[in-house]
Amino acid sequence: MEIMKRYYETLAATVISGLNKRQMEGYYCKTPKEAVELALSLLPKQPTVGFGGAMTLIQSGMLDALKADPSIRLLDREAVQSAEEKEDVCRSHFSADAYFMSSNAITADGELINIDGSGNRAAALIFGPKEVFILAGMNKIVPSVEEAVSRVRNTATPPNCIRLNKQTPCALTGACSNCLAPDCICNQIVITRRSGKKGRIKVLLIGGNLGF
Predict the structure, then answer these.
(1) With CB atoms 3.0 to 4.6 Å apart as the test, which of 110, 113, 161, 199 could cross-link to 171 if both were Cys?
(2) Binning pLDDT at 50, 70 and 90, where does residue 130 land?
(3) Which of 187, 167, 185, 168 is nearest to 177 (CA)?
(4) 171-210 core/surface letters (b: 16 or more CB in 10 A; e: else)
(5) Radius of gyration over alpha carbons of the chain, in Å?
């Protein structure tokens, strides 16, 4: 365990260096609790906050913390019922002070790779919210963009499709078939190689395995 802790710290330092040169802010937190506390401390006062679907936000306790803070106006698509209402909430995220999400994969050189279904999460990452907070376990780090895309398709997407009850080939086989199925959630592939606005994207790396 001690060796893995040192490994995570060493690798995180490399990733953070890559993020910084790409105008993104990188942080390393040993535990999910540290990441949640840091993220809350970086928020402006009485912020309007949106979030994208991410197991990491649930597993880390970040989503519960956002919901429990009375000073935060949370734009929660899970709190509405109809598809139209959910879409309206997702659109409102573009004017939020902060947006929370994870990243499907991050290269050791600081590039973010995300594959999205409806595109709401990737769109908010690219433009709209004043700040974007990405929480990601060290299991999301890969050497290259090519390996990142492979990781998302073969490691992250199949369990996500099972979780979301999607009728896709990967939900049945556990492996990507590069499908065009009606339930496909691999519709947008977004590579963020640099933030156009310095410091807008903040990446909080967490020492451990979180999310898919």
Answers:
(1) 161
(2) very high
(3) 168
(4) beeeebeeeeeeebbbeeebebeebeeeebbbbbbbbbeb
(5) 16
